[in-house]
Amino acid sequence: MGLMNAFQIGRQGLAVHGKRVEIAAKNIANIDTPNYTRKIPLISSNQDQSFATVLSSMGMGALEGSSNLGGVNFDGIVEDPTPGAKIYKPGHPDADEQGYIRTSNTNAMVDIADATMAQRAYEASLGVMSISKAMANASLEIGR
Question: What angle do CA 100, 103, 106 make, to 5 degrees?
Answer without folding.
Answer: 165
